[in-house]
Write a structure and sequence with these properties.
The complex is a heterodimer of chains A (272) and B (292).
Chain A lengths: L9 H9 L6 H11 L1 H10 L1 H16 L5 H8 L4 H8 L6 H20 L3 H6 L2 H8 L10 H5 L5 H24 L13 H18 L1 H18 L13 H20 L12
Chain B lengths: L9 E10 L2 E11 L2 E6 L6 H8 L7 E6 L7 H9 L1 E4 L11 H11 L5 H14 L15 H13 L5 E5 L7 H14 L4 E6 L2 H7 L2 E6 L2 E6 L1 H6 L5 E4 L8 E4 L5 E4 L7 E2 L4 H17 L2
Parallel strand pairs in B: 3-7, 3-8, 5-6, 6-7
Antiparallel strand pairs in B: 1-2, 1-4, 8-9, 10-12, 10-13, 11-12
Helix pairs in contact in B: 3-4, 3-5, 4-5
The chains are: A mainly alpha (272), B alpha/beta (292).
Protein backbone atom coordinates (compact mmCIF):
# COMPACT_ATOMS: atom_id res chain seq x y z
CA UNK A 1 0.00 0.00 0.00
CA UNK A 2 1.43 3.40 -0.98
CA UNK A 3 1.20 6.67 0.91
CA UNK A 4 -1.47 7.91 -1.48
CA UNK A 5 -3.66 4.81 -1.02
CA UNK A 6 -3.59 4.76 2.75
CA UNK A 7 -4.58 7.71 4.93
CA UNK A 8 -4.51 8.26 8.66
CA UNK A 9 -7.87 7.23 10.15
CA UNK A 10 -9.88 10.12 11.61
CA UNK A 11 -9.69 8.76 15.17
CA UNK A 12 -5.91 8.74 14.96
CA UNK A 13 -5.84 12.22 13.41
CA UNK A 14 -7.87 13.42 16.39
CA UNK A 15 -5.47 11.75 18.82
CA UNK A 16 -2.58 13.39 16.99
CA UNK A 17 -4.32 16.77 17.23
CA UNK A 18 -5.07 16.26 20.92
CA UNK A 19 -1.45 15.21 21.46
CA UNK A 20 -2.46 11.97 23.13
CA UNK A 21 -0.73 9.78 20.54
CA UNK A 22 2.33 7.91 21.78
CA UNK A 23 5.40 6.65 19.88
CA UNK A 24 5.89 4.69 17.67
CA UNK A 25 2.44 5.38 16.15
CA UNK A 26 3.16 9.11 16.60
CA UNK A 27 6.36 8.87 14.57
CA UNK A 28 4.74 6.96 11.70
CA UNK A 29 1.77 9.36 11.70
CA UNK A 30 4.10 12.34 11.58
CA UNK A 31 6.10 10.79 8.76
CA UNK A 32 2.91 10.17 6.80
CA UNK A 33 1.59 13.69 7.49
CA UNK A 34 4.82 15.20 6.22
CA UNK A 35 4.33 13.47 2.85
CA UNK A 36 0.55 13.43 2.47
CA UNK A 37 -1.17 16.72 1.56
CA UNK A 38 -4.63 15.11 1.83
CA UNK A 39 -4.06 14.13 5.47
CA UNK A 40 -2.57 17.55 6.20
CA UNK A 41 -5.77 19.15 4.86
CA UNK A 42 -7.99 16.76 6.84
CA UNK A 43 -6.03 17.52 10.00
CA UNK A 44 -6.33 21.28 9.36
CA UNK A 45 -10.10 20.91 8.95
CA UNK A 46 -10.38 18.73 12.00
CA UNK A 47 -8.25 20.90 14.23
CA UNK A 48 -6.52 23.99 12.76
CA UNK A 49 -4.67 24.55 16.03
CA UNK A 50 -3.13 21.10 15.79
CA UNK A 51 -1.37 22.09 12.57
CA UNK A 52 0.16 25.14 14.23
CA UNK A 53 1.06 23.06 17.28
CA UNK A 54 2.64 20.46 15.01
CA UNK A 55 4.88 23.07 13.44
CA UNK A 56 5.76 24.40 16.89
CA UNK A 57 6.71 20.88 17.97
CA UNK A 58 8.82 20.44 14.87
CA UNK A 59 10.51 23.82 15.50
CA UNK A 60 11.24 22.84 19.08
CA UNK A 61 12.82 19.56 17.99
CA UNK A 62 14.92 21.33 15.38
CA UNK A 63 15.98 23.93 17.96
CA UNK A 64 17.17 21.31 20.44
CA UNK A 65 20.95 21.05 20.25
CA UNK A 66 22.63 17.67 19.84
CA UNK A 67 23.28 16.30 23.34
CA UNK A 68 26.86 16.05 24.58
CA UNK A 69 28.96 12.88 24.53
CA UNK A 70 28.04 11.80 28.08
CA UNK A 71 24.33 12.17 27.38
CA UNK A 72 24.59 10.33 24.07
CA UNK A 73 26.44 7.43 25.68
CA UNK A 74 23.90 7.24 28.50
CA UNK A 75 20.88 7.27 26.18
CA UNK A 76 22.51 4.58 24.03
CA UNK A 77 22.92 2.52 27.18
CA UNK A 78 19.16 2.74 27.68
CA UNK A 79 19.00 5.62 30.16
CA UNK A 80 15.96 7.91 29.63
CA UNK A 81 16.91 11.21 28.00
CA UNK A 82 15.74 13.29 30.98
CA UNK A 83 17.74 11.14 33.41
CA UNK A 84 20.77 11.41 31.13
CA UNK A 85 20.50 15.21 31.23
CA UNK A 86 20.28 15.21 35.03
CA UNK A 87 23.36 12.99 35.20
CA UNK A 88 25.24 15.18 32.73
CA UNK A 89 24.76 18.08 35.14
CA UNK A 90 26.60 16.25 37.95
CA UNK A 91 29.26 18.82 38.87
CA UNK A 92 32.19 16.40 39.27
CA UNK A 93 31.58 14.34 36.15
CA UNK A 94 34.05 16.42 34.20
CA UNK A 95 37.29 15.53 32.50
CA UNK A 96 39.31 17.33 35.21
CA UNK A 97 37.79 15.21 37.96
CA UNK A 98 38.14 11.94 36.02
CA UNK A 99 41.78 12.87 35.37
CA UNK A 100 42.31 13.46 39.10
CA UNK A 101 40.76 10.08 39.94
CA UNK A 102 42.86 8.27 37.31
CA UNK A 103 46.05 9.98 38.56
CA UNK A 104 45.29 9.08 42.18
CA UNK A 105 44.58 5.46 41.28
CA UNK A 106 47.73 5.25 39.14
CA UNK A 107 49.83 6.61 42.00
CA UNK A 108 48.21 4.24 44.51
CA UNK A 109 48.79 1.28 42.13
CA UNK A 110 52.43 2.29 41.75
CA UNK A 111 52.86 2.37 45.53
CA UNK A 112 51.18 -1.05 45.68
CA UNK A 113 53.82 -2.34 43.22
CA UNK A 114 56.70 -0.81 45.14
CA UNK A 115 55.52 -1.47 48.69
CA UNK A 116 52.14 -2.83 49.74
CA UNK A 117 48.57 -2.95 48.35
CA UNK A 118 47.07 -1.40 51.48
CA UNK A 119 47.61 2.11 50.08
CA UNK A 120 45.56 1.26 47.00
CA UNK A 121 42.90 -0.61 48.96
CA UNK A 122 42.52 2.24 51.44
CA UNK A 123 42.57 5.02 48.81
CA UNK A 124 40.09 3.64 46.27
CA UNK A 125 37.05 3.82 48.65
CA UNK A 126 37.79 7.48 49.35
CA UNK A 127 37.36 8.49 45.70
CA UNK A 128 33.56 8.02 45.41
CA UNK A 129 33.28 9.63 48.82
CA UNK A 130 35.03 12.77 47.58
CA UNK A 131 33.08 12.68 44.32
CA UNK A 132 29.71 12.49 46.07
CA UNK A 133 30.68 15.35 48.40
CA UNK A 134 31.52 17.46 45.35
CA UNK A 135 28.30 16.62 43.51
CA UNK A 136 25.69 18.12 45.73
CA UNK A 137 25.10 21.09 48.00
CA UNK A 138 25.45 24.85 47.71
CA UNK A 139 29.25 24.75 47.59
CA UNK A 140 29.50 22.25 44.76
CA UNK A 141 26.38 22.62 42.66
CA UNK A 142 25.95 25.98 40.91
CA UNK A 143 22.23 25.31 40.47
CA UNK A 144 21.66 24.03 44.01
CA UNK A 145 19.18 26.73 44.96
CA UNK A 146 17.11 26.17 41.82
CA UNK A 147 17.20 22.40 42.42
CA UNK A 148 16.06 22.75 46.02
CA UNK A 149 12.92 24.73 45.17
CA UNK A 150 12.02 22.51 42.19
CA UNK A 151 9.24 19.97 42.64
CA UNK A 152 11.53 17.07 41.77
CA UNK A 153 12.63 15.33 44.97
CA UNK A 154 16.06 16.43 46.11
CA UNK A 155 16.71 12.92 47.41
CA UNK A 156 16.22 11.44 43.94
CA UNK A 157 18.68 13.89 42.44
CA UNK A 158 21.19 13.09 45.18
CA UNK A 159 20.87 9.35 44.58
CA UNK A 160 21.15 9.74 40.81
CA UNK A 161 24.31 11.77 41.07
CA UNK A 162 25.81 9.55 43.75
CA UNK A 163 25.13 6.46 41.64
CA UNK A 164 26.80 8.10 38.65
CA UNK A 165 29.88 9.01 40.69
CA UNK A 166 30.02 5.55 42.26
CA UNK A 167 29.69 3.89 38.84
CA UNK A 168 32.51 5.94 37.33
CA UNK A 169 34.90 5.45 40.26
CA UNK A 170 34.08 1.73 40.44
CA UNK A 171 34.90 1.21 36.76
CA UNK A 172 38.14 3.20 37.06
CA UNK A 173 39.16 1.46 40.29
CA UNK A 174 38.39 -1.94 38.76
CA UNK A 175 40.56 -1.04 35.78
CA UNK A 176 43.34 0.06 38.13
CA UNK A 177 43.01 -3.21 40.05
CA UNK A 178 44.10 -5.04 36.89
CA UNK A 179 47.39 -3.15 37.09
CA UNK A 180 48.08 -4.36 40.61
CA UNK A 181 50.53 -7.18 41.34
CA UNK A 182 48.96 -10.58 42.00
CA UNK A 183 47.12 -10.39 45.31
CA UNK A 184 44.15 -12.61 44.48
CA UNK A 185 40.71 -11.59 45.73
CA UNK A 186 42.27 -9.23 48.26
CA UNK A 187 42.85 -6.82 45.36
CA UNK A 188 39.08 -6.28 45.22
CA UNK A 189 38.96 -5.44 48.94
CA UNK A 190 38.24 -1.78 48.12
CA UNK A 191 34.82 -2.49 46.61
CA UNK A 192 32.66 -3.12 49.72
CA UNK A 193 34.29 -0.26 51.69
CA UNK A 194 33.65 2.09 48.73
CA UNK A 195 29.98 1.19 48.79
CA UNK A 196 29.65 1.33 52.59
CA UNK A 197 31.54 4.62 52.99
CA UNK A 198 29.45 6.27 50.27
CA UNK A 199 26.21 5.11 51.86
CA UNK A 200 27.36 6.19 55.33
CA UNK A 201 28.34 9.60 53.98
CA UNK A 202 24.97 10.03 52.25
CA UNK A 203 23.12 9.04 55.43
CA UNK A 204 25.08 11.66 57.38
CA UNK A 205 24.62 14.31 54.67
CA UNK A 206 21.05 14.97 55.82
CA UNK A 207 22.42 16.15 59.18
CA UNK A 208 25.93 17.43 58.47
CA UNK A 209 25.85 18.55 54.84
CA UNK A 210 27.82 16.80 52.08
CA UNK A 211 31.33 18.06 52.85
CA UNK A 212 31.35 17.52 56.61
CA UNK A 213 29.65 14.14 56.22
CA UNK A 214 32.22 12.92 53.70
CA UNK A 215 35.12 14.32 55.75
CA UNK A 216 33.88 12.60 58.93
CA UNK A 217 33.45 9.25 57.20
CA UNK A 218 36.84 9.56 55.47
CA UNK A 219 38.58 10.31 58.77
CA UNK A 220 36.85 7.35 60.40
CA UNK A 221 37.97 5.07 57.55
CA UNK A 222 41.58 6.27 57.69
CA UNK A 223 41.59 5.79 61.48
CA UNK A 224 40.22 2.25 61.08
CA UNK A 225 42.76 1.23 58.44
CA UNK A 226 45.76 2.74 60.22
CA UNK A 227 44.77 1.31 63.60
CA UNK A 228 44.59 -2.23 62.17
CA UNK A 229 47.65 -2.12 59.92
CA UNK A 230 49.62 -5.32 59.52
CA UNK A 231 46.64 -7.68 59.59
CA UNK A 232 46.22 -10.17 56.72
CA UNK A 233 47.57 -10.02 53.16
CA UNK A 234 45.64 -6.84 52.45
CA UNK A 235 47.58 -5.06 55.20
CA UNK A 236 44.60 -4.16 57.40
CA UNK A 237 41.77 -5.89 59.23
CA UNK A 238 39.36 -4.07 56.90
CA UNK A 239 40.44 -6.34 54.03
CA UNK A 240 40.32 -9.77 55.72
CA UNK A 241 37.06 -11.77 55.30
CA UNK A 242 35.72 -10.82 58.73
CA UNK A 243 36.50 -7.15 58.07
CA UNK A 244 34.78 -7.33 54.68
CA UNK A 245 31.74 -8.94 56.27
CA UNK A 246 31.62 -6.21 58.92
CA UNK A 247 31.91 -3.59 56.16
CA UNK A 248 28.99 -5.17 54.29
CA UNK A 249 26.87 -5.10 57.46
CA UNK A 250 27.85 -1.46 58.08
CA UNK A 251 26.91 -0.65 54.49
CA UNK A 252 23.50 -2.30 54.88
CA UNK A 253 22.88 -0.36 58.10
CA UNK A 254 23.91 2.86 56.36
CA UNK A 255 21.47 2.10 53.54
CA UNK A 256 18.66 1.67 56.07
CA UNK A 257 19.66 4.92 57.80
CA UNK A 258 19.73 6.70 54.44
CA UNK A 259 16.26 5.44 53.53
CA UNK A 260 14.95 6.65 56.88
CA UNK A 261 16.61 10.04 56.47
CA UNK A 262 15.28 10.66 52.95
CA UNK A 263 12.56 13.08 54.09
CA UNK A 264 15.18 15.32 55.67
CA UNK A 265 16.55 16.09 52.19
CA UNK A 266 13.21 17.62 51.20
CA UNK A 267 13.05 19.90 54.24
CA UNK A 268 14.16 23.48 53.64
CA UNK A 269 17.31 24.30 55.54
CA UNK A 270 19.99 26.93 55.91
CA UNK A 271 22.22 26.91 52.86
CA UNK A 272 25.70 25.60 53.71
CA UNK B 1 -4.43 44.12 32.50
CA UNK B 2 -3.60 43.02 36.04
CA UNK B 3 -6.12 40.60 37.46
CA UNK B 4 -6.27 40.70 41.24
CA UNK B 5 -6.59 37.20 42.72
CA UNK B 6 -9.57 36.54 44.99
CA UNK B 7 -7.31 35.43 47.84
CA UNK B 8 -3.80 36.71 48.54
CA UNK B 9 -1.11 34.79 46.69
CA UNK B 10 1.17 35.11 49.72
CA UNK B 11 0.01 35.83 53.24
CA UNK B 12 2.71 36.09 55.90
CA UNK B 13 2.37 37.02 59.55
CA UNK B 14 4.83 37.11 62.47
CA UNK B 15 7.61 35.58 60.35
CA UNK B 16 10.89 35.34 62.24
CA UNK B 17 14.18 33.68 61.41
CA UNK B 18 17.63 33.74 63.01
CA UNK B 19 21.02 32.78 61.62
CA UNK B 20 22.61 31.58 64.85
CA UNK B 21 22.30 34.54 67.20
CA UNK B 22 21.73 37.07 64.45
CA UNK B 23 18.08 37.89 63.74
CA UNK B 24 17.48 37.98 59.97
CA UNK B 25 13.71 38.58 60.12
CA UNK B 26 11.64 39.72 63.09
CA UNK B 27 7.86 39.52 63.14
CA UNK B 28 7.44 40.25 59.43
CA UNK B 29 3.91 40.46 58.02
CA UNK B 30 2.77 41.20 54.48
CA UNK B 31 0.31 40.08 51.82
CA UNK B 32 0.90 39.70 48.10
CA UNK B 33 -1.78 39.96 45.44
CA UNK B 34 -1.60 40.18 41.65
CA UNK B 35 0.85 42.24 39.62
CA UNK B 36 4.37 43.22 40.59
CA UNK B 37 5.23 43.79 44.24
CA UNK B 38 8.62 45.21 45.15
CA UNK B 39 10.49 44.24 48.28
CA UNK B 40 12.58 47.32 48.91
CA UNK B 41 15.31 47.68 51.49
CA UNK B 42 18.99 48.35 52.04
CA UNK B 43 21.61 45.60 51.76
CA UNK B 44 21.32 43.21 54.69
CA UNK B 45 17.68 44.13 55.36
CA UNK B 46 16.57 40.48 55.05
CA UNK B 47 15.10 40.65 51.54
CA UNK B 48 16.85 37.53 50.26
CA UNK B 49 15.94 35.59 53.41
CA UNK B 50 12.28 36.53 53.01
CA UNK B 51 12.28 35.58 49.32
CA UNK B 52 13.93 32.24 50.13
CA UNK B 53 11.21 31.56 52.66
CA UNK B 54 8.48 32.38 50.13
CA UNK B 55 10.28 30.22 47.54
CA UNK B 56 10.37 27.27 50.02
CA UNK B 57 14.17 27.21 50.21
CA UNK B 58 14.05 28.12 53.91
CA UNK B 59 11.58 27.51 56.73
CA UNK B 60 10.94 30.33 59.22
CA UNK B 61 11.61 29.70 62.89
CA UNK B 62 8.21 31.20 63.79
CA UNK B 63 5.16 32.65 62.08
CA UNK B 64 2.40 31.79 59.66
CA UNK B 65 2.84 31.58 55.90
CA UNK B 66 0.48 30.68 53.09
CA UNK B 67 1.75 30.62 49.51
CA UNK B 68 -0.69 30.02 46.66
CA UNK B 69 -3.16 28.68 49.19
CA UNK B 70 -0.77 26.06 50.59
CA UNK B 71 1.30 25.83 53.76
CA UNK B 72 4.95 25.40 52.70
CA UNK B 73 5.90 24.07 56.13
CA UNK B 74 4.22 20.73 55.29
CA UNK B 75 5.60 18.38 52.64
CA UNK B 76 2.44 18.25 50.46
CA UNK B 77 2.05 22.03 50.79
CA UNK B 78 5.67 22.59 49.81
CA UNK B 79 5.31 20.38 46.74
CA UNK B 80 2.10 22.20 45.74
CA UNK B 81 3.89 25.56 46.01
CA UNK B 82 6.95 24.36 44.11
CA UNK B 83 4.78 23.15 41.22
CA UNK B 84 3.36 26.67 40.74
CA UNK B 85 6.45 28.73 41.54
CA UNK B 86 9.20 30.29 39.44
CA UNK B 87 12.32 31.40 41.31
CA UNK B 88 15.25 33.51 40.17
CA UNK B 89 17.93 33.49 42.92
CA UNK B 90 20.15 36.48 43.58
CA UNK B 91 23.17 34.73 42.15
CA UNK B 92 21.83 32.18 39.67
CA UNK B 93 24.40 29.51 38.89
CA UNK B 94 24.75 27.62 35.64
CA UNK B 95 26.43 24.42 34.62
CA UNK B 96 29.24 25.85 32.50
CA UNK B 97 29.15 23.15 29.84
CA UNK B 98 25.47 23.62 29.07
CA UNK B 99 24.00 25.72 26.29
CA UNK B 100 21.09 28.04 27.09
CA UNK B 101 18.70 25.43 25.68
CA UNK B 102 20.27 22.57 27.65
CA UNK B 103 20.24 24.51 30.91
CA UNK B 104 16.56 25.40 30.63
CA UNK B 105 15.82 21.85 29.54
CA UNK B 106 17.59 20.69 32.72
CA UNK B 107 15.45 23.03 34.85
CA UNK B 108 12.33 21.80 33.02
CA UNK B 109 13.24 18.24 34.04
CA UNK B 110 13.62 19.39 37.66
CA UNK B 111 10.13 20.84 37.25
CA UNK B 112 8.83 17.38 36.36
CA UNK B 113 8.51 17.88 32.60
CA UNK B 114 9.81 14.50 31.50
CA UNK B 115 8.12 14.17 28.10
CA UNK B 116 10.84 15.20 25.67
CA UNK B 117 8.65 16.88 23.06
CA UNK B 118 6.51 18.81 25.51
CA UNK B 119 9.65 19.86 27.36
CA UNK B 120 11.42 21.10 24.25
CA UNK B 121 8.34 23.10 23.25
CA UNK B 122 8.31 24.68 26.69
CA UNK B 123 12.02 25.50 26.47
CA UNK B 124 11.46 27.21 23.12
CA UNK B 125 8.48 29.13 24.53
CA UNK B 126 10.37 30.55 27.51
CA UNK B 127 13.46 31.32 25.44
CA UNK B 128 11.24 33.28 23.05
CA UNK B 129 9.57 35.06 26.00
CA UNK B 130 12.91 36.53 27.06
CA UNK B 131 14.09 37.12 23.48
CA UNK B 132 16.84 34.51 23.50
CA UNK B 133 15.62 31.94 21.02
CA UNK B 134 18.35 32.93 18.57
CA UNK B 135 21.00 32.27 21.22
CA UNK B 136 19.65 28.88 22.32
CA UNK B 137 22.67 26.92 21.07
CA UNK B 138 25.32 29.11 22.69
CA UNK B 139 27.25 27.93 25.73
CA UNK B 140 26.11 29.92 28.75
CA UNK B 141 29.70 30.86 29.61
CA UNK B 142 29.93 32.73 26.29
CA UNK B 143 26.82 34.86 26.93
CA UNK B 144 26.93 38.41 28.36
CA UNK B 145 25.79 39.11 31.94
CA UNK B 146 22.45 40.44 30.72
CA UNK B 147 21.84 37.40 28.56
CA UNK B 148 22.71 35.05 31.41
CA UNK B 149 20.24 36.87 33.61
CA UNK B 150 17.62 36.41 30.90
CA UNK B 151 18.46 32.69 30.72
CA UNK B 152 17.88 32.50 34.48
CA UNK B 153 14.57 34.34 34.09
CA UNK B 154 13.57 31.96 31.30
CA UNK B 155 14.34 29.05 33.65
CA UNK B 156 12.07 30.63 36.27
CA UNK B 157 9.29 30.85 33.66
CA UNK B 158 9.30 27.14 32.86
CA UNK B 159 5.88 25.65 33.55
CA UNK B 160 4.13 29.05 33.38
CA UNK B 161 4.19 29.58 37.18
CA UNK B 162 1.48 31.53 39.01
CA UNK B 163 4.03 33.17 41.29
CA UNK B 164 7.42 34.51 40.25
CA UNK B 165 9.97 35.26 42.96
CA UNK B 166 12.86 37.34 41.61
CA UNK B 167 15.80 38.24 43.84
CA UNK B 168 17.48 41.45 42.61
CA UNK B 169 16.79 40.57 38.97
CA UNK B 170 18.42 43.65 37.44
CA UNK B 171 21.53 43.92 39.61
CA UNK B 172 24.72 44.14 37.56
CA UNK B 173 22.93 44.96 34.30
CA UNK B 174 23.75 48.00 32.20
CA UNK B 175 21.00 50.63 31.74
CA UNK B 176 19.79 49.27 28.40
CA UNK B 177 19.68 45.68 29.66
CA UNK B 178 17.88 46.90 32.78
CA UNK B 179 15.21 48.58 30.67
CA UNK B 180 14.70 45.47 28.56
CA UNK B 181 14.50 43.36 31.68
CA UNK B 182 11.93 45.69 33.22
CA UNK B 183 9.87 45.42 30.05
CA UNK B 184 9.81 41.64 30.33
CA UNK B 185 9.00 41.68 34.07
CA UNK B 186 6.20 44.23 33.61
CA UNK B 187 4.67 42.01 30.94
CA UNK B 188 4.96 38.95 33.17
CA UNK B 189 3.23 40.81 36.00
CA UNK B 190 0.13 41.24 33.87
CA UNK B 191 -0.79 37.58 34.06
CA UNK B 192 0.59 36.48 37.41
CA UNK B 193 2.00 37.63 40.73
CA UNK B 194 5.60 38.76 40.80
CA UNK B 195 7.53 39.41 44.00
CA UNK B 196 10.89 41.03 43.35
CA UNK B 197 13.51 42.36 45.70
CA UNK B 198 15.53 45.45 44.98
CA UNK B 199 17.44 48.19 46.73
CA UNK B 200 16.72 50.62 43.89
CA UNK B 201 13.75 52.95 44.34
CA UNK B 202 13.69 53.66 40.59
CA UNK B 203 12.92 49.98 40.04
CA UNK B 204 9.90 50.25 42.34
CA UNK B 205 8.68 53.37 40.53
CA UNK B 206 9.14 51.74 37.12
CA UNK B 207 7.63 48.34 37.83
CA UNK B 208 5.68 47.85 41.02
CA UNK B 209 2.02 48.23 41.85
CA UNK B 210 2.79 47.59 45.51
CA UNK B 211 5.84 47.89 47.69
CA UNK B 212 6.97 46.38 50.99
CA UNK B 213 9.88 48.12 52.72
CA UNK B 214 12.09 45.84 54.77
CA UNK B 215 14.73 47.30 57.06
CA UNK B 216 16.89 45.47 59.61
CA UNK B 217 14.70 42.38 59.35
CA UNK B 218 11.40 44.18 59.90
CA UNK B 219 8.64 45.20 57.51
CA UNK B 220 8.37 48.99 57.93
CA UNK B 221 5.85 49.77 55.19
CA UNK B 222 3.33 48.09 52.90
CA UNK B 223 1.34 49.99 50.28
CA UNK B 224 1.52 51.54 46.84
CA UNK B 225 4.59 53.44 45.60
CA UNK B 226 2.45 56.61 45.76
CA UNK B 227 1.72 55.90 49.45
CA UNK B 228 5.44 55.49 50.09
CA UNK B 229 6.21 58.78 48.33
CA UNK B 230 3.46 60.46 50.37
CA UNK B 231 5.40 59.71 53.58
CA UNK B 232 7.64 62.61 52.56
CA UNK B 233 4.79 65.01 51.80
CA UNK B 234 5.81 68.51 52.93
CA UNK B 235 9.36 67.33 53.75
CA UNK B 236 11.13 67.68 50.39
CA UNK B 237 12.71 70.99 49.50
CA UNK B 238 15.03 72.70 47.07
CA UNK B 239 17.39 75.60 47.64
CA UNK B 240 20.72 77.01 46.51
CA UNK B 241 22.72 75.74 49.50
CA UNK B 242 23.26 72.58 51.53
CA UNK B 243 21.06 72.02 54.58
CA UNK B 244 23.11 70.28 57.31
CA UNK B 245 20.08 69.77 59.54
CA UNK B 246 18.14 67.81 56.85
CA UNK B 247 18.00 64.00 56.82
CA UNK B 248 19.59 64.08 53.38
CA UNK B 249 20.83 66.98 51.29
CA UNK B 250 22.53 66.72 47.90
CA UNK B 251 23.19 68.75 44.78
CA UNK B 252 20.88 67.59 41.99
CA UNK B 253 21.64 67.59 38.27
CA UNK B 254 20.08 71.07 37.98
CA UNK B 255 22.80 72.48 40.25
CA UNK B 256 20.35 73.23 43.09
CA UNK B 257 20.31 71.32 46.36
CA UNK B 258 17.54 68.88 47.20
CA UNK B 259 16.76 68.31 50.86
CA UNK B 260 14.65 65.71 52.63
CA UNK B 261 13.63 66.67 56.15
CA UNK B 262 14.09 70.08 57.75
CA UNK B 263 14.28 72.91 55.17
CA UNK B 264 16.96 75.62 55.13
CA UNK B 265 15.74 79.23 55.10
CA UNK B 266 14.13 80.28 51.82
CA UNK B 267 13.73 76.73 50.48
CA UNK B 268 10.90 75.85 48.09
CA UNK B 269 8.65 72.81 48.65
CA UNK B 270 8.88 69.95 46.11
CA UNK B 271 6.70 66.97 45.20
CA UNK B 272 8.17 63.90 46.93
CA UNK B 273 9.29 60.81 45.05
CA UNK B 274 9.39 57.17 46.17
CA UNK B 275 13.07 57.68 47.00
CA UNK B 276 12.20 60.60 49.30
CA UNK B 277 9.53 58.56 51.07
CA UNK B 278 11.92 55.65 51.46
CA UNK B 279 14.64 57.92 52.90
CA UNK B 280 12.17 59.44 55.36
CA UNK B 281 10.96 56.01 56.43
CA UNK B 282 14.36 54.37 56.89
CA UNK B 283 16.08 57.36 58.51
CA UNK B 284 13.18 58.18 60.83
CA UNK B 285 13.03 54.53 61.96
CA UNK B 286 16.79 54.53 62.55
CA UNK B 287 16.56 57.73 64.62
CA UNK B 288 13.65 56.35 66.65
CA UNK B 289 15.60 53.15 67.36
CA UNK B 290 18.71 55.15 68.29
CA UNK B 291 16.66 57.11 70.83
CA UNK B 292 15.54 53.76 72.25
Amino acid sequence: MTATEWHVPEAELRRYGERTMAPPVLWSTEAHLAACAACQDRLAELDPQAVAAGWARLDAELDAPVPGLVERLLTRAGVADHTARLLAATPVLRLSWVTAVVSTLALAALVAHLAHPVVFLATAPLLPLAGVAMSFGPRADPTYEISVVAPMHTFRLLLLRSSAVLAVTTVLSAAATLALPEFGLVALGWFLPALALTLASLALTARLGPVLAAASVALGWIALVTSTLGTGSGGSAAFVPVGQFATAVAGALAAVALARARRAFETPRRLR
Amino acid sequence: MIVAPAVPVVRASHLSLRYGRTPALTDVAFTLGGGVTGLLGPNGAGKTTLLRIVATALTPDHGELTVLGADPRTEPGRLAVRRRLGYLPQDPGFHPAFTAFEFIDYVAILKELTDRRARHEEVCRVLAAVGLREHRGKKIRTLSGGMRQRVALAAALVGDPDLLVLDEPTVGLDPEQRLRFREVIAELGEGRSVLLSTHQTEEVMALCQRVVVLDRGQARFEGTPADLAALADGRVWTSGSRAPEALASWRAGSGRYRHVGEPPPGAELLEPTVEDGYLMLVDTTAQQEARG
